[in-house]
C-alpha cells in the first residue's frame, strides 16, 4: 500500500565490483544482461 508520498521506490544498486565503479567495470555486462541498468551511482535494478 502506498502512503501520501506514493509507493516506496525500491531498487538494488551495485556501486563497486572488485574495487571499480560498477557501471564502468568489465564485469558489468552480465548484470546488464540480467536486467540491471547503468544509473547515476552504479548498476541498478528496479523492483518489479
Low-confidence stretches: 1-5
Number of strands: 5
Amino-to-carboxy terminus distance = 15 Å
> How large is the radius of gyration?
13 Å
* Shape descriptor: globular
Describe this structure in words.
It is a single chain. The chain has a domain at 14-46. A hairpin with a 2-residue loop joins strand 2 (16-17) and strand 3 (20-21). The chain has one helix at residues 28-33, and strands spanning 11-14, 16-17, 20-21, 37-39, 42-46. A three-stranded antiparallel sheet has the order 1-5-4. A two-stranded antiparallel ribbon has the order 2-3. It has 48 residues and is mainly β.
Task: Provide a brief overview of the structure.
This protein has a domain at 14-46.
Structural features:
mainly beta; 1 helix; 5 strands; 48 residues; globular; 3-stranded antiparallel beta sheet; 12% helix
Topology:
Layout: E1 11-14, E2 16-17, E3 20-21, H1 28-33, E4 37-39, E5 42-46
Antiparallel strand pairs: 1-5, 2-3, 4-5
